[in-house]
Structure of DUF2797 domain-containing protein:
Amino acid sequence: MGGEGGVEWWCRGIGWGGGVPGLRWRGGRVSTLTYGQRLAFRAVGVRRCPGARGNPCPLEAVVPGRATGGRCPECARLDRAHSVAADTIADDPQPYRVYLAWFGPGMTKVGITAEARGEARLLEQGAVAFGWLGRGPLMAARRTEEVLRQALGVPDRVAYERKRAARHALPPAPERAREVEELYRRARAVGGWTETLEPLGLAVRDHAGVFRLDGLPRLDGTVAELVGGGVVTGRLLAAAGPDLHLLAPDGRCLALDTRLMGGWMLEAAGEEDGFSVPVTAAAPVAESAQEGLF
């Protein structure tokens, strides 16, 4: 924890190594998160750019508290330049998979991920249910992704605000699976892409148990930002994608986007320190809309 034994705990957000959530720290340390545990920490000083691609920010630039990217412009460009989505690594020889992801009623998307990463990308995005559609070379997967987005009328991303709200009122698992199955049926009916990708049989995977989403109380608000000296305390109810769903001491169920934690030095706090960071009231989700510290 901050200052303990000379160790400074600079946060780098959440990771899903081995399918389990954990807070990542500068230097490669990871604090595994356990559902039901009490979290209590204080942000120290100012938020600084954590760097990109394992490299520290040469400027240690101060970044805005509400920026989910959490990087200075230069490090953000470096990170983007090495992203699959940036169209800069067309010669990547490893196989890729096209997936169909479901985040809530009417909230689906088509995406791609390196086959070697398995389900990691789906966990990182907070996909409640998903299924594989096909596999093959990167450029074929990318073309298929774009063709299906246009043909099926699905977006390339779903806003995290909508994902969060939907998790607190999920339909039963069979209904979640049916939406994925219907999207798969429609995708298979779109011609052409099977000439360059190997189609995969559908086996819907559901992450509600991994995220611990069943039975979540109503979402009362989301943390807007961390601030120097600000304290977060609560019991961890669920984690999905970058979000932690916490039961605060006053009984509110609040979501904390761990991307807002990246670049902050954190230290342990006591429950008696309360909950003293800005919170934005939760907006209702529109049904069937498509768009070692602890």
